[in-house]
Amino acid sequence: MKIFSGIQPTNQLHIGNYLGAIAQWIDLQKDNECIFWIADLHALTVPYQAKELQKRTLEVVATYLATGIDPEKSIIFRQSDVKEHSELAWLLSTITPVGDLERMTQFKDKSQKHKANINAGLLNYPVLMAADILLYQSNRVPVGIDQKQHIELARTIAKKFNKKFGETFIVPEGLYSKLGAKIMSLKEPTKKMSKSDSPDSFISLFDSPEQIKKKIASATTDSLKSVKYNPEKQPGIANLLTIYSLFAEQLIKEIEKEFANKGYAEFKQGLALLLIKKLKPFRDKKEEIAKNPELLKDILENGAKKARLIAQLTMQKVKQAMGLV
């Protein structure tokens, strides 16, 4: 089975990125053909610094390696190194209704957040994402639940193309983590954890023990004082319980019993110590990778070569189907 997924090189990757996507990838690469890309073209749709983008791209590659993605088993490459992404996005845009794009939640959210930068790329973002996925004839796309709308549009575009021009694309399916697919902000627990928000609202995969303790200690809770999983009445504690459960590989009910007669401070201390322990191997591995910066560039170059071979075969089929060859 062919697996395809990726992450934008914007700010630091956090535990929500790991639990919602990367953790799935590590298991999937054992028995599947996996392709993991760095979505730098997508990152251009919001304000950014050119030098910072290059730095962040290499940091994403380092994160992939530090968390367990193996370049010997999986293809790792940068989106902009394969021109077929942009080419296919244009072709698919000719069969995608503008109304479908205007209804996308991400377009609405980012338009509100960056009112001075509502660009055509932001509107066409979902078409490029569909091109990313369809270009590699992906069967499954492991992503966070917040990306479900994009996956559904990619499926719609693939079906429409196949109906109009003949069977060309595999219709992909989203692969969503049942628990942890949507980790919430530490500061606003009714809102998804986002690397574009304040650093205090998320735990980076490479935060120091001191940073982890501080962020967890200041995480928003409530006045009920009971460690119970109740997303409606206690969204902050419910979010922290979810994080604890996933990293401890322990049922939430068991954690509730463990902290039944204990306060929030003790529960937060326990969570912080757990995260420090679980994230330490990632920090250590990244420090080791930092000693060999050329390794990251070599991985991207080799990955791009492999990705181009697949992409070119797909584009040949697409052009033939559309009458361009």
From TrEMBL:
What is catalysed by this protein?
tRNA(Trp) + L-tryptophan + ATP = L-tryptophyl-tRNA(Trp) + AMP + diphosphate + H(+)
Task: State where L-tryptophan binds.
Answer: D132
Can you supply one Gene Ontology CC term for this chain's record?
cytosol
Which purpose does this protein serve, as stated in its record? Catalyzes the attachment of tryptophan to tRNA(Trp).
The protein's name is Tryptophan--tRNA ligase
One GO term under biological process is: tryptophanyl-tRNA aminoacylation
| Gene Ontology molecular-function annotations | ATP binding; tryptophan-tRNA ligase activity
Q: Tell me the protein family, please.
A: Belongs to the class-I aminoacyl-tRNA synthetase family.
Residues annotated as binding ATP: Q8, P9, T10, G16, N17, G144, I145, D146, I183, K192, M193, S194, K195, S196
Keywords, alphabetical: Aminoacyl-tRNA synthetase, ATP-binding, Cytoplasm, Ligase, Nucleotide-binding, Protein biosynthesis
Under PANTHER family, the record lists: TRYPTOPHAN--TRNA LIGASE, MITOCHONDRIAL (PTHR43766)
Species the sequence originates in: bacterium (Candidatus Gribaldobacteria) CG10_big_fil_rev_8_21_14_0_10_37_21
The source's superkingdom equals Bacteria
Return the motif ranges for 'HIGH' region. 9-17
Provide the protein's localization. Cytoplasm
